[in-house]
Amino acid sequence: MEQGSAHDGARPAYASGVLPRTSAGARVPAQARGAAAARLPEQARGEHTHGEDPRDEPPAARAVRRHSVRGQILDALRTALVDGELEPGRVYSAPALGARFGVSATPVREAMQRLAVEGAVEVVPNRGFRVSERGPRERAELAQVRALIEVPVMLDLARTVPAHRWSALRPLADATVAAAAVGDLAAYAESDRAFHRALLALSGNGQLVAVAEELHRRAQWPPVSGPATRRADLLADAAEHTALLDALAARDLAVVQALVAEHVTGAGN
């Protein structure tokens, strides 16, 4: 990618000067555009900047606003990753992405650092951030680890959770079906994680839920299927959520085990 601009020939994720909607539908506040923000060390940014003075750091009163902007940019970047608008293998600079979003480069860098921790991007010194590429082997490894966590937990929940408790999760399963029906991959990814998070939360193990969510998020990008097959894949994946709730309520352990094992290796999860 050309320094300070989007990659030549790539379709911009967002029009210049137009703020994206996050997965929650919110827009980055206009009053926060271009605001000065706390500086990250150069080696943590993935690119050099010059002439920055630590004394320019904004007062503490602006911290909440900056955090809000960073959170919304993080949501927008996650949506762009899941949608495939930020292409695997390409390098994007924080200033160029900031220009697309109508904000300064600082909240973009901060959001990208979070995505680097999650394994979605890699820091490229002096250039920016490269969107991670996942080959078949890495995808298979993620699926295997997810299965090692989720299969035994689901079997234990099937044995111990009263049947009527599963009905409370039906709206979450329905939300995945609704997102799948319109082929909205970003909305599906979010609703899919919410469904799995609610299921695993019944274990009462917060650490397990956090680890499983991290693995789930890593497995969601870059997307496996293209637009032509995306809707069919998502519908099949969403149908497994409903079938899993039925099996859990019926305490059908064999079906629960088969569904969870199959589900975590599917293209839509």
UniProtKB/TrEMBL annotation:
- Region: Disordered, residue numbers: 1-66
Any one GO molecular-function label of the UniProt entry? DNA binding
Q: What CDD domains is this protein classified in? A: WHTH_GntR (cd07377)
**Transport found in the keyword field:** no
Pfam families reported for this sequence: FCD, GntR
Task: Note the InterPro entries from the entry.
Answer: GntR_C, TF_FadR/GntR_C, Tscrpt_reg_HTH_GntR, WH-like_DNA-bd_sf, WH_DNA-bd_sf
User: Which residue ranges have biased composition labelled Basic and acidic residues?
Assistant: 42-59
This one is known as: GntR family transcriptional regulator
